[in-house]
């Protein structure tokens, strides 16, 4: 089995989150448009969470750690 590159994996998820944010909305109307937008919001959230994770593999178990605590702009560090 190949060694899992966790950094590459999380990088791919960050790229997917960015792609969801940048993709346009197809010409949909009414309920279909709302469903598309709602699904894009969920997709972005899921991809972004995994993209922000730090991971490790111990005894064959992949563990992803995600800090879900809210950060204010002052918590972000220097601009």
Please, could you describe this protein's structure?
With 79 residues, this protein is α+β, with helices and mostly antiparallel strands. The protein has one domain. The protein is 49% helix and 13% strand. The protein contains two helices and two strands. It has helices at residues 6-22, 30-51, and strands at 54-58, 61-65. The protein has a two-stranded antiparallel sheet. β1 (54-58) and β2 form a beta hairpin. α1 (6-22) runs antiparallel to α2 (30-51). The longest helix is centred in the middle third of the chain and has 22 residues, at 30-51. The radius of gyration is 16 Å and the shape is extended. The mean pLDDT is 89.
Concise summary:
The protein is α+β, with helices and mostly antiparallel strands and 79 residues long. Helix content is 49%, strand content 13%.
Taking pLDDT < 50 over at least 5 consecutive residues as the criterion, the unreliable ranges are none
Structurally, the number of domains stands at 1
Overall SS class: alpha+beta
Share of helix, binned: 40-55%
């Amino acid at each position: 089995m190949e060694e899992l590159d966790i950094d590459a994996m999380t990088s791919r998820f960050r790229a997917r989150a960015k792609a969801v944010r940048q993709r346009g909305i197809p010409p949909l109307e009414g309920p279909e448009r709302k469903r598309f937008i709602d699904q894009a919001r969920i997709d972005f959230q899921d991809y972004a969470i995994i993209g922000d994770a730090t991971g490790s593999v111990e005894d064959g178990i992949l563990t992803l750690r995600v800090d879900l605590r809210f950060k204010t702009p002052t918590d972000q560090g220097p601009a």
